[in-house]
């Protein structure tokens, strides 16, 4: 399977397994808009969850560590969800 396919599947994995609420997501979006910052500033918790879930998907599928950063970082992934 090509890495791009893995990336799409990993995005779905994050969608299906993230632990933040709709309210937390809305607060993060409000902070991003108000302060013009990335998700890592707006919500360190969401940032950490994205990284952990992407790494978890990679481990479960035999991919190298941080494989997903070739396609984007937490901020990019947050907005693709």
Q: How many helices does DSSP assign? A: 5
Q: Mean pLDDT, nearest integer? A: 95
Structural category: mainly alpha
Helix percentage: over 70%
* Poorly predicted sequence stretches spanning 5 or more consecutive residues: none
Secondary-structure element string: HHHHH
Distance between the termini: 21 Å
The percentage of residues in β strands lies in under 5%
Q: Give the biggest beta sheet.
A: none
Total beta strand runs: 0
Number of domains: 1
Topology:
Elements: H1 3-17, H2 22-35, H3 39-42, H4 44-60, H5 74-80
Helix pairs in contact: 1-4, 4-5
Polypeptide structure, described:
The chain has 81 residues and is mainly α. Helices cover 70% and strands 0% of the residues. The longest helix has 17 residues, at 44-60. The chain is elongated, with a radius of gyration of 13 Å. The two termini are 21 Å apart.
């Amino acid at each position: 399977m090509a890495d791009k396919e893995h990336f799409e599947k990993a995005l779905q994995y994050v969608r299906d397994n993230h632990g933040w609420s709709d309210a937390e997501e809305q607060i993060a979006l409000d902070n991003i808009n108000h302060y013009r910052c990335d998700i890592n500033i707006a919500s360190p918790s969401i940032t950490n969850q994205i990284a952990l879930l992407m790494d978890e998907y990679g481990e479960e599928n035999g991919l190298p560590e941080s494989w997903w950063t070739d396609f984007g970082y937490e901020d990019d992934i947050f907005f693709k969800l």
